[in-house]
Amino acid sequence: MLRLPKPRKLSLILLFTIPLILISFFFSNFASASFIISSVEFIGQATLPTGLSFQKTEVGGLSGITYDARNNLYYAISDDRGQKAPARFYTLSIDLSQGKLTNNGVIPVGVTNLLNTDNQPFLPNTTDTEGIALTNQDTIFVASEGDVDKLINPFIKEFALASGQTISTLPIPDKFLPDPQKQKGIRNNLAFESLTITPNQKFLFTASENALIQDGTAAKSGVGTSCRILQYNLFTKQPEQEFLYQTQPITPLFNPTGKFASGLPDLLALDNEGHFLSIERSFTGLGFTVFLFQVSLDKATDIHSLESIVKINTDSIKPVEKKLLLDLRTLDVSLDNIEGLTLGAKLPDGQPSLILISDNNFNGLQQTQILAFKLKIESPMTRLLRRLRIPNVQ
Q1: Exposed, middle or buried, 150 (CB in 10 Å: 0-12/13-18/19+)?
Q2: I want to staple 95 with a disulfide (CB 3.0 to 4.6 A). Which of 105, 143, 324, 379 is the partner?
Q3: Are strands 367-377 and 88-94 parallel, antiparallel or unpaired?
């Protein structure tokens, strides 16, 4: 015969058990160290003029940026294909010590050439370096888009931070590689722009800027595109999972030039739990549209085994989840071609900063634009109360 606990005994059990469950839930939530952003505050901009000369190079084409917290320096990759100077990255000083960025707050302090496996600068027109990510081993990873028309493959290589020497090369899955018949692979100039490493240094992520040829159409007016996020295990140096990222459709209100471009130029890993920031940038003929999203892989489908997503029922694929944090058109600035982002120095109040940077295309009508933001992070306690649906406590 099943004997039920007496009411008073059951009440005592619940009295002690429920707090233990809540405490356990809280600490497991705290231990996950998830990085959830509750607000983004613009704290200033700086610009570098096109044509700026530094150490016999023209500063420009800055398509990706990464932060070195140990030295409070930033490294920005140039996408110059060797036409102005060899493939290179710049070291920048960005002053946020007053809690804001002013126009004289960004100063180039170094430039480093990337060297091939023969310890020589890359030949002109063999690279299109767009993404950069710093490791904790005094090295950087750099992503190059390659050149589809010339059948030059994209690459993701590791370089010594001090010398620029090549250390290792990550293998690229065949589905991403250019095809002579152009039936599969990356589209020209729409390949690996993004690069980021998780704080625990275990995973590296990149993404195609637009859909692979076999995955659907490139972005066009009023139509988004299906990008692939590609995850590498840096312990094994092998690709692992892939995820579908759908960009927002953008319809220009006024586009007399007829020119249009849109895509995913960068990702930033916020934690080890699959949370990222992304920027989506569109050129609409008369200016730029830039969105900042928070992204989660939590419920996304791993599609690495799928050579093409158009050949299956796409309802069975869950893309990454996106939450719009900021439409940069609401800022009181004239946006340039924003392509890179990184977490930056801690601000005087202890909050983290976010830095965005633009690629000026070495165009005299553009400039290198650096935008700074303060991020407000949701605390584990606030997150716990929200999940328990307890009224918000600030």
Answers
A1: exposed
A2: 105
A3: unpaired
